[in-house]
Amino acid sequence: MRRALLTAALLALGCASRPQAQPAPASAAQDVLAGEREALARAPVLGPIPPFEGPVPRIEVLPNGLPLYIVERPGAGIEAIQLWIRGGATADPDASPGLASLTAELMEAGAAGKSQTEIAAAADAIGMSLSVNTLQDAVVVSGSAMTVSLPQMTALLADVALRPDLLESEWEKVRAQREAMLVAERAEPAVAALRAFRAAVFAGTPLGRPIEGTLPAVKRATLADVRATYASFGPGNAALVAVGGAGTDKVVAALRSAFGGWQGGKTRAAARMAEPPGVRPRLVIVDFPGKPQSVLVVGQPAAPRSSPDYLALEVLNAVVGGSFTSRLNQNLREQHGYSYGASSRFEWTLGRSPFSARSSVKTDVTGPALSELLSELRRAADEPLDKAELDKGRALLAYRLVDTLSHASQLAAAVAQIWLYSLPVDEYRTYVPRLQSLSVQSVQAAARGALQPARMTIAVAGDKARVLPQLAPLSLGNPELRDPSGNRLP
Q1: pTM above 0.70, yes or no
Q2: What pLDDT does residue 45 have?
Q3: Percentage of the chain with pLDDT > 70?
Q4: In terms of DSSP H, where are the helices of 67-167?
Q5: Strands 110-111 and 114-115
Q6: Do domains 62-259 and 283-481 have the same CATH topology?
Q7: Where are the domains of the chain?
Q8: Distance between terminal CA atoms of the chain?
Q9: Which residue of 15, 18, 394, 486 could cross-link 10, Cys pair, CB 3.0 to 4.6 Å?
Q10: Torsion (CA) 94, 98, 103, 105 in degrees, nearest 10
Q11: Would you say 343 and 326 are in contact if contact means Cβ atoms under 8 Å apart?
């Protein structure tokens, strides 16, 4: 079929000398196929990373102590403003996971006497995007609009951030929607595998609980709990980030007008994650009888975002599972056909951040697929990258940084991490030089320090009856059984 299509293409392009109704000579098609194979066999040559000067934010402080991180981009027509509030899911009480996330959702449900619909209409009128999101370590109120709308944008953003109504009627809707979402997610093996992995690996710490909360905790939550969570927000534990084309003086004046009167909240020291348990289960199973696929999550606690090995580990991950041409994807998808895709990632946080490799595979090849995944992780920890892989990883990160910094909202989020994780203010100015200074040896040293494949926890969400016999040759021990919410079963 492929040869016939190539022949037809040759004829259509006039590459054959015979009449159109006749097939092209076999030699012509063979020449094309040979050329195609030769082209595919030649790996593109990665040149040196070109000079790049990342932004260094200017830092101002409002009279109420709220710091402003400003990146001016002359000529840019978009302005992004973000308020980052320290805490996020990390600050949720042990018995009440999900409170920060519920608070963020209720903040969007009405503010300054305006309904959610009225706020959305006001944002639409100036072409503004507006959202409140909860991350592991922060709650983020974000807005972006054309630079000419800076005063209106900052005023609306301040309404949502500083004057949420937190009404009983809206609270009942928010809680009901969250309960429904958590119930629906129980049917999703991909969600179940991640929840079981986190609960097993980070038991007793905030990372072991879903950011969205658990169904029992959400049912127990009250509006008073949400209001108390919101009352803890204040200028002493927050920072503003502004990126765009408006001049610095204009930005400072707009933000002082909108946020300069904010008071209250509690000044918090930087959160510190509790140490995850030293003994973790090797194999965790979430049973989904009859499912045609198994979801695999393999990983462990690794390093915090502030680690000096951050860049080396990011380069390693780009090679192992952080791109389409990564080792994991090439192995499980391209070589063996076990999966449509496989990946790995570090989810950077204040504490020991999760590292995980993930894939969804056909049920009947769960064992072989897991064996290949574990083999790639052992290779990552035990064997140094070759020079070509190091060059590829460095280039990928450099180009991703350029892409991130070319978008106002993404750049604002990147700058906010300087404040959140106490990074050097020139983090992005020195990013590419630090990338270029990495060696095969330094990346290997970081890998050995962060990854212990023999101790990684393996979470599998799939048909237990069909999966467990396939895992026996891997000698993983008796499985720990968990339900789709991550709770341990007897």
Answers
A1: yes
A2: 64
A3: 88
A4: 99-107, 116-125, 150-162
A5: antiparallel
A6: yes
A7: 1-27, 62-259, 283-481
A8: 55
A9: 15
A10: 170
A11: yes
CATH of region 283-481: 3.30.830.10
- 292-351 pLDDT, tens per residue? 999 999 999 999 999 999 999 999 999 999 999 999 999 999 999 999 999 999 999 999
* H or E stretch covering 465: helix 464-471
Looking up tokens 């595998």, which residue turns up? Answer: 193
Contact status, residue 273 vs residue 92, Cβ threshold 8 Å: no
* Both structure tokens of 385: 């990258």
Enumerate residue ranges in the chain where pLDDT < 50.
1-24, 269-270
**Residue 68's beta-bridge partner residues?**
60, 240
Three-state DSSP at 55 gives coil
**Using an 8 Å Cβ cutoff, are 128 and 177 in contact?**
no
For the chain, the C-alpha Rg in angstroms (whole number) is 26
pLDDT tens string 363-387: 999 999 999 999 999 999 999 999 9
Question: Are the CB atoms for 46 and 435 separated by under 8 Å?
Answer: no
Rounded distance, CA 330 to CA 479, Å? 29
Total Cβ atoms within 10 A of residue 27: 8
For residue 171, give Cα distances in angstroms to 20, 104, 399.
71, 11, 43
Integer Cα distance of 57 and 70 in angstroms: 5
Q: What angle do CA 316, 319, 320 make, to 5 degrees?
A: 85
Question: What's the confidence (pLDDT) of residue 12?
Answer: 30
Q: Are 99 and 93 in contact (CB under 8 A)?
A: yes
The pLDDT, as a whole number, for residue 276 is: 82
> ∠ CA(415), CA(315), CA(84), 5° rounding?
20
> Could you tell me which CATH number the domain at 62-259 has?
3.30.830.10
For residue range 154-205, what is the model confidence (pLDDT) as tens digits? 999 999 999 999 999 999 999 999 999 999 999 999 999 999 999 999 998 9
Say if residue 415 is exposed, middle or buried (CB neighbours under 10 Å; 0-12, 13-18, 19+).
buried
